[in-house]
Hints:
Elements: H1 3-15, H2 26-36, H3 40-72, H4 77-125, H5 129-134, H6 137-179, H7 181-189, H8 191-227, H9 229-238, H10 241-294, H11 299-320, H12 322-340, E1 362-370, H13 374-377, H14 380-383, E2 395-404, E3 409-413, H15 420-426, E4 435-440, E5 443-444, H16 450-456, E6 457-460, H17 471-476, H18 484-493, H19 497-502, H20 520-534, E7 538-542, H21 550-563, E8 568-572, H22 576-581, E9 584-589, E10 592-597, H23 599-605, H24 608-616
Parallel strand pairs: 3-8, 3-9, 6-7, 7-8
Antiparallel strand pairs: 1-2, 1-4, 4-5, 9-10
Amino acid sequence: MSMETTAWTQAYRAMHAEQDRRPFNRASLRRIAGFARPHRGRIIRFLGLSVLTALLAVATPVLAGRVVDTIVGGGDPATVIRLALLIAVIAVAEAGLGVVERLLSSRLGEGLILDLRTAVYDHVQKMPVAFFTRTRTGALVSRLNNDVIGAQRAFSSTLSGVAGDIVTLLFTLIVMLTLSWQITLLALVLLPVFVLPARRMGTRMAALQREGARLDAEMGTRMTERFSAPGATLVKLFGRPGQESREFAERAARVRDIGVRTAMAQTVFITALTLVSALALALVYGLGGWYALRGSMEPGAVVALALLLTRLYAPLTALAGARVEVMGALVSFERVFEVLDLKPLIEDREDAREAREGALSVEFDGVRFGYPAADKISLASLEEVAALDTRGGEEVLKGVSFRAEPGQTIALVGTSGAGKSTIATLLPRLYDVDAGTVRIGGTDVRELSAESLRATVGMVTQDGHLFHESVRANLLLARPDATEDDLWSALARARLAPLVRALPDGLDTVVGERGYRLSGGERQRMTIARLLLANQRVVVLDEATAHLDNTSEAAVQAALTEALADRTALVIAHRLSTVRAADRILVIESGRVVEQGTHDELLSADGRYAELYRTQFADPAADPAGSPAAVG
Length: 632
């Protein structure tokens, strides 16, 4: 590797490494070793090849020197040919070893990326919903991409580089000192002139790169928000196009300015190091030529020293920046470990069991619950704040108790923020209660395995979320083994079959980001079709008909009535028709059940439910026969 190439490499590595001065964390090193252990055979082969490549790199300049000596001394042409052939063989061997080394390097690095990404992805899936409501998605994705790749460099680049550089440095010094210790020592005098600018300018460029990355991230975040379907709609409704354009242009201009400063810093850095390398070569040729003319040194030795000089400065410069690379990789590992160290709030017990067969009851017994504080479920770096919000833990549910018999439908009504949706999230165990018990079929949900709970409890949320995938893929999320007939049956029961048949690609039509190619009612019916396909025995509907017009709601309500037959259902509804159909209505206020009974019983009691009813149906004509309307 030439000095100029080394300079470019060091510039790049310095820019992409965090300038962190923390000491090595032994616990982190042990964990890194744990990830590396499955790849130890590949690492050993990789290091062995790196050492062998370094030895071959030193051999070529020595052989070139012998060629020159043979030519100058009028030696046998056959000797020159043999030496040239040997140099060619070494070049071919270096090329072949380089390809094999790159293969091992890529397998090692990509294998480590796979292990790290899988570990982080699997761990993040275990985190509670509150984790995702607080975390910036881009920051979390960055851990799976940038930081994992940064950690991977420790094995695929830094590890081999350090090993090869040490071997190359040792053998190069030995050979140079053998040829001329005087020139070698003088060449080493220029080393500080070569290394110090590399370290200082590398730090400067790293700072510029971090600032540029920050500005790029800000610009990317703005584009992501503005280019999403809801964001674009909001900008069109309330945004000022001129102001939006100016603000974006200002951010883009800052990115441009950083880019120019970085490019100039790189150019000055590379030019300075190239100049130093040229001065070093001039020293070797000048002093070595003088010795050769005096007869105290062979001409071939001068050539060999000049070639070896590039083999000397390159590893010295690389090793000077090795600490930066190692610390950068260690920081990346630690940022990955930060996520892995977040303890999931919901975990299966070792003796977790399956839900019993048949229809199941649902029971809340003295349930108390408060959403966890940020420091228990999140990281400041993932929220992109200086410090986590320490608030949290206030009770949302305060001793909620009720029971739904197998096959019954329970409706929850009340004002916004009363705790209805919180009750709904506890049944599928998106959170664990702080006190009391939630039971399904008489079994505490904490005693059931996650797999059994998912197969038992189905939930339709009010936002009707769909992935940017096909209709088929969105439905198969509920039941991967469903047949074509099963899919069409679920769509028909959700009153969506005619719509899907009319789509350009039928079941294979992509619905768009969050399903925005469909109307609100169509998205919601898609989620209901997914629920029908899953065929779970306990169903939670969190305002599942909130986005439907009267006609669509009537159709879906008929499908839901069929789907909920012989199933236990917990329904949060703003629609009176759904409330009227419930076996029992619970009125939730301030985290408590303040009333319960049938629609007629609660109206007769003239309590909170009757008050809500009168407020929302002050006009008697507004509810002639239970037409859809808001209840709570």
